[in-house]
Amino acid sequence: MQPMPLSAVADAVGGRLADADPQATVTAPAVFDSRVATPGSLFVALTGEQADGHDYAKAAIANGAAAALVARPVGVPAIVVPDVLAALGCLGLHLVQHALTGTQIVAITGSAGKTSTKDLIAQVLPAVGPTVATPGSYNNEIGLPVTITMADPSTRFLVLEMGARGIGHIRQLTRIAPPQISVVTNVGTAHVGEFGGRDNIAQAKGEIVEALPAGGLAVLNADDPLVRAMAHRTHARVVTYGLDAQATIRATEVSLNGRGQATYTLHTPEGSAPVALQYVGQPQVYNSLAAAAVAGEAGLSLPQIADVLSQATPRSPWRMETTRRADGVTVINDAYNANPDSMRSSLDALAAMARGRDQRAIAVLGPMNELGNDARHAHEEVGRHAAGLGLDQLITVGGEAAEWMQTAAGDLGAPAVHLPDQDSALHLLRSTLRRGDVVLVKASRGVQLQQLAQALLEPDPEPAG
Length: 465
Fold this sequence. Notes:
This protein is of the alpha/beta class. Helix content is 34%, strand content 22%. Helix 10 (225-228) links the parallel strand 12 and strand 13 (237-242).
């Protein structure tokens, strides 16, 4: 973050100083966890359902924070504002307008794949100039302005993932950080119950292209009709990507190797080049094509783009995170989140990894949340899809929704079992896994099946006695 005296920060967010030296300076990014406060950081005292950040302001200052952003004085150097979250957004906007004037903002949204797309873009753009990107999934009204504070005037590109829980949310984020390039990965069924339908999801996601200036660029998935239609919602230039023959940036000859990683031929207006991804799963082809479009806009040549995409490695945990144990068992931890589209894609990758080899493909699936009235049908469709792939074992874990998957798969003759909890699944897997097996673990984030995946990577406990 560009150094700012506390007096300037207070002016930018419409606050007043309390117990603070006006000339003391914020020199490090904002944080909302006192444990990660560093010398010169700004501690943001947010109030949530479980904790009040004001209670941790003293700890943040003790760890070196220059001041706290608070709604009431707390006895330590602070900037007092009426609304802490709104003030954080004001700080982000101030930095964009006054400190990051030479920084190009790349915004990314979509129902699925936006984090992997963000990670890929964040690995191609440094070839052009210094790049700062959203850490993890800091993609909401808290994480986005915090990410902005991680940039400084030397930052050439600021890559921001933008999530939404409803119509208007992305518009709010783009007001804080107006993009010059906007990427939309897809409009799927993730959170469809929360939004009330795919058309509403499309309406919300399309706000990211509406925010573009006339000289900006919209990067749109040509294979998703709802995304492709967003071209009519912007005055910016449009570049499309996908497998469609009419896409500006496209892939042909796509195949998955024995590790589930895709290879393909990348086609751009400049020509074609081979790409071999380090990421697992065919959806990564789309994510990498979006990254290729952004890289081309930034000035990278086709050979450079193909080379960097082939070298890029997964950055975010629990997204097709693949680990081979010492005994030859491969565990795929894809438990960060789940929706019907990503479930099918992950199952396809699992089947590809085991196909034609002396390996068993085992899927451990938990419920998909926020599907509304489509929940039962969606879970049954996933179960039928798993059965159609000829997996060696399907294990569903959790409540009724998971059982719907198991029943649908079992009705088609697939070897499927439903277990009530993670402990039961772990016991079954530890007693039946053998060398060479490939195990996929996937569910919605709230199910926390990543704990099961992580337990599978730990040594089995010694038997009692």
